[in-house]
Design goal:
alpha+beta, Double-stranded beta-helix, three-stranded antiparallel sheet, 23% helix
Length: 308
């Protein structure tokens, strides 16, 4: 059977199973047999964990969820990170402070002006990144649910960092395996020319060290840990460090490693930030609303503890 059409089946009870259909040759799958508006069982949660270990990105279609249901589903996989802990805490639109507002909307529901500060910073999400890589303990899973989508554009792309690592030339693997990078939102926003940070925001954005190559705590697989949030490599001159990260990112986001998700209303996508990068794609954000909500599960340990 072609790898892109492989079906992964998991038993969740007597005579019951759920299925995941692989979408790309190395990763990403479509889930079948779930109604996430209802509390999931332990067996269903374990099946999703198994699928995540295998596919790293899992798509659930036609899931009508409110914010409370989205939050409750994500919390079945671990503690939820707070939203807006780095910047723009004064621009909350959603009642639950642990749900991230991934939209181009103001608190009154209207589209943000073109020069809105929050919108300008949010354009950084169009760069390849891993959620919360700028935190001492970076994120595990992210759960993104679509409420309103534009008629075209606004897709999300995912890149398999495990497959990219596997395909790196041996000499390059040896060169990068022990490197430690510094991550900060200041770095990623600086790449798009956004520098409008307050003194308090700059303080909260103090760079944190992360391994460039990490090992998955359950599967043992190695993967690159790349992100637009990287601004330095310990022991390297900054220009050389930036060029290496750029070269690795270009390689790791080649079409053979990428899945593009075209959003439909009520889609929910889960991805593993430890083994993937992602980016949003542009759309006519001055004209059309786009409203997605995200919860993010905390990671379990610093990458510096990974034995690679």
């Amino acid at each position: 059977m072609d790898s892109a059409s492989t079906v992964f089946k998991v038993q969740i009870g007597s005579g019951q199973e759920v299925q995941f259909t692989q979408l790309r040759p190395t990763f990403a799958a479509q889930a079948h047999g779930f109604d996430l508006s209802q509390p999931i069982t332990d067996a269903q949660r374990d099946a999703i964990d198994q699928a995540m270990e295998r596919f790293a990105v899992v798509v659930f279609s036609d899931q009508k969820l409110d914010d409370e249901q989205l939050f409750s589903f994500g919390a079945r996989f671990g503690p939820i990170e707070g939203a807006g802990t780095t910047t723009f805490q004064d621009r909350r639109r959603l009642a639950n402070a642990q749900i991230n507002d991934i939209s181009n909307l103001q608190a009154d529901g209207t589209i943000m002006p073109a020069d809105d500060r929050h919108r300008m910073s949010g354009l950084g999400n169009l760069l390849w990144h891993s959620d919360s890589s700028y935190k001492t303990v970076p994120a595990q899973y992210s759960f993104l649910h679509a409420r309103v989508v534009p008629p075209e554009g606004g897709e999300t792309e995912f890149a398999d960092m495990r497959a990219a690592w596997d395909e790196l030339p041996a000499k390059l693997k040896e060169r990068v395996k022990g490197l430690i990078c510094e991550h900060s939102m200041i770095y990623s926003r600086g790449k798009i020319g956004f520098t409008d940070f307050s003194a308090e925001e700059i303080k909260r954005c103090t760079p944190v060290p992360q391994r460039l190559v990490r090992r998955h705590e359950k599967t043992g697989r190695l993967s690159l840990f790349l992100s637009a949030h990287i601004g330095r490599i310990e022991g390297w001159q900054t220009p050389e460090a930036i060029l290496l990260i750029q070269d690795l990112t270009e390689f790791a986001t080649g079409p053979q490693f990428v899945y593009q998700h075209k959003w439909q209303v009520n889609d929910l996508v889960i991805w593993d930030n430890r083994t993937t990068m992602h980016r949003g794609r542009s759309f006519e954000s001055h004209t059309y609303p786009r409203d997605l909500r995200r919860v993010t599960v905390q990671g379990s340990a610093s990458t510096l503890r990974d034995c690679v």
